[in-house]
Amino acid sequence: xxxxxxxxxxxxxxxxxxxxxxxxxxxxxxxxxxxxxxxxxxxxxxxxxxxxxxxxxxxxxxxxxxxxxxxxxxxxxxxxxxxxxxxxxxxxxxxxxxxxxxxxxxxxxxxxxxxxxxxxxxxxxxxxxxxxxxxxxxxxxxxxxxxxxxxxxxxxxxxxxxxxxxxxxxxxxxxxxxxxxxxxxxxxxxxxxxxxxxxxxxxxxxxxxxxxxxxxxxxxxxxxxxxxxxxxxxxxxxxxxxxxxxxxxxxxxxxxxxxxxxxxxxxxxxxxxxxxxxxx
Length: 280
Prior knowledge:
This protein is mainly beta. The protein has 2 domains: 2-57; 68-278, Alpha-Beta Complex (Fumarylacetoacetate hydrolase, domain 2). Helix content is 13%, strand content 32%. The protein is built from 5 helices and 17 strands. It has helices at 33-38, 76-85, 162-168, 172-175, 222-230; strands spanning 2-8, 11-17, 23-27, 46-51, 56-57, 68-72, 98-102, 124-125, 128-134, 150-157, 160-161, 183-189, 200-205, 208-214, 240-242, 264-269, 273-278. The strands form 3 sheets. Strands 1, 2, 3, 4, 5, 6, 7, 9, 10, 12 and 15 form an 11-stranded mixed beta sheet that branches. It has a 4-stranded antiparallel beta sheet with strand order 14-13-16-17, with no helix packed on it. The model has no long low-confidence stretch (mean pLDDT 95).
């Protein structure tokens, strides 16, 4: 299923996208997507069918229950461009994943604006990432069983203020500005994507292809991350894990190509769709 959260006649609803994408069938009996996932993610009672053009698309999980868990520099080519931007030596190895959290006041849906935050940054950047949504409580997940705990996948744009990352020597503030987590357009349930996911992943800015890779190139796999994290922390249903971005972010260019007001960013992952947002 392709699941989405949307507004229709000023009411927030969840639903299933039709096969051709022309309509949405509402799912009844749940408060929101978090409640749906908490209760097992089974769509049993459907309501009206609404033409897609009549809805306002929101992020699939507008208000995640916890900070998003993110992986830094999880593609080797991105690790190289990141080190180059920060004028650091790069040894060519990433033996352990880099984890950080991203505060989410409210996730931004496809078609909604990204705040430019011109008052605090002039180095706003984009990062297309595959996000894994946990479907049931995960603690001490054994190797080979991670798939059992995956509800589905979506796309996020890990919007980042590079000057704040550099200034504070850690990533929390620079990654957590209001509106810095575009998510969507849908959640694709895990049964619809072959495991492990090997999906083409791209981003465009104003139609220019910037990032172009495949999730098979991730250094730490989805399996490794779920097994490792759950060995010491409980992953609750609805947890969002962003799996890192490939090379081609704005800071990787010489000179850098940071976002400015009016820019349109499109994040695309095979089998999921396109997350499109304009910088306001």
